[in-house]
Amino acid sequence: MVGLTDRGRLASGMRADINVIDLDRLRLGTPHIVHDLPEGGRRLMQRAEGYAATIVNGAVTYRDGTPTGTLPGRLVRGPQPAALARQ
Fold first, then answer.
1. Which of 5, 7, 13, 44 is at 20 to 30 A from 57, Cα to Cα?
2. Do residues 61 and 70 lie in contact, with contact meaning Cβ atoms separated by under 8 Å?
3. Could you tell me the pTM of the whole model?
4. Segments making up each domain of the chain, as ranges
5. Do the beta carbons of residue 50 and residue 25 sit within 8 Å?
């Protein structure tokens, strides 16, 4: 729909973000407001427990709620060129 042809399936060569969740440990914290946006803007935050891992493009970015320091993502600025879509 928006031209991101390397997403939408778990398959070799595709990009994917995956959360591995331990349902027995899954807990949500109380939502709270933080003022960390430009000009003092606010947003709602909520802690969660029970996320065993977050995997982005095959790399573990969070393990048990702690960042691993790995940042494999990139900014997407629109539809992909046709040559990349065929790979």
1. 44
2. yes
3. 0.67
4. 17-71
5. yes
